[in-house]
Write a structure and sequence with these properties.
Amidohydrolase, ACMSD, TIM Barrel, lyase, 337 residues, 15 helices, single chain, alpha/beta, 10 strands, carboxy-lyase activity, Amidohydro-rel
Length: 337
């Protein structure tokens, strides 16, 4: 475990790793909505893309489930600590009993996985957001009993936006607990328009994150819950680099005044992973949101992620203090490491 460090040496923290929980799939197997999800995937991705995805899952199974393999890969990439969350298949259609089973199964699996290397791994769970009262209870259990650092959520809840007032009790509970809410899309609501050439992921995932963040900002969620800790996957999608259009709408149109301040103000109250691929894109992200709001993110172990996240941060040519914050300081503060 060559990457692990001790004492006062700075630690490199990757905030975007994934764990596969096969038992969750078995619990959902046979449910009509599980079959409907599979049918929707066939519309949103070409047959070739689905074949590639299925082969990838089989190939990555050790990395998605085995602690020792994960640690070896972290060492190879120069990462000391990884935040591990479930694959973002939240099944927000599940009825209360099944939803509770799925949530507890996934969260227990994440906690158990991370407990095998507590100095290297910290966990994020899932929530049954479709049942807000149950979600609040499970959030408290995940943080207080299982020791998870927060939860991963998708970009909408079976068609309801994250900014819907139904979810305010969940965001309030997360703020009070100091729990991080990691926004990570699964698929794209644009469906068949992005079916060819893997556009459902390449374009669709950043679009979904952009939409979710825009709803949260324009919908006043960050006004109502100023202490909420939001972390956005994939550099926040397209929002940080085109926030000027949002500011213009807010200034010119009364129907875009759902938030108290200009939308760009809220960008600096959200955290982002640095998974934007190029030095130029990372510099643009830092300029838009601040170097205290960005952290290494690998999307481990998937092919749309990177295996050299720390090296890419260093390649951006930021000053030494900003580089150190992005490599580990920001994540350590956000997650209380």
């Amino acid at each position: 475990m060559g990457a692990a460090v001790s004492g006062d040496a700075p630690r490199v923290v990757d905030v975007h790793g994934h764990l596969l929980v096969p038992e969750a799939g078995r619990l959902a197997q046979g449910h009509p909505r599980e079959a409907a999800d599979a049918a929707a995937e066939r519309l949103a991705f070409s047959a070739h893309s689905i074949e590639v995805n299925q082969k990838q899952i089989g190939r990555l199974l050790p990395q998605l489930t085995e602690v020792e393999r994960r640690l070896a890969d972290l060492d190879a990439s120069g990462v000391d600590v990884q935040i591990v969350g479930p694959m973002p298949m939240h099944r927000y259609w599940a009825e209360p009993e099944l939803a509770e089973q799925l949530t507890r199964t996934v969260n227990a699996a994440v906690a158990e996985h991370c407990a095998q290397a507590p100095d290297r791994l910290a966990g994020l769970g899932t929530l049954p957001l479709q049942h807000p009262d149950l979600a609040v209870a499970e959030l408290e259990r995940a943080v207080r009993e299982l020791g998870l650092k927060g939860v991963s959520v998708s970009t909408n809840v079976d068609g309801r936006e994250l900014a819907h007032p139904d979810f305010d009790p969940v965001w309030q509970a997360a703020a009070e607990l100091g729990a991080v809410v990691f926004i990570h899309p699964w698929g794209c609501s644009l469906g068949a328009r992005l079916g060819a050439n893997f556009l459902g992921n390449t374009v669709g995932q950043p679009v979904e994150t952009t939409l979710a963040l825009s709803h949260l900002i324009f919908g006043g969620v960050l006004d109502r819950h100023p202490d909420l800790k939001l972390l956005a996957a994939h550099g926040g999608g397209y929002l940080p680099t085109y926030i000027g259009r949002s500011d213009h709408a807010w200034a010119e149109r009364p129907d875009a005044r759902g938030c108290r301040e200009a939308p760009s103000t809220y960008l600096r109250r959200i955290w982002y992973d640095a998974l934007v691929y190029t030095p130029t894109a990372l510099r643009h992200l830092v300029e838009a949101v601040g170097d205290d709001r960005v952290a290494v993110g690998s999307d481990y172990p998937f092919d749309m992620g990177v295996t050299d996240g720390p090296a890419r941060v260093r390649a951006a040519g930021l000053d030494e203090a900003a580089t150190a914050r992005i490599l580990g300081g920001n994540a350590a503060a956000l997650f209380g490491l």
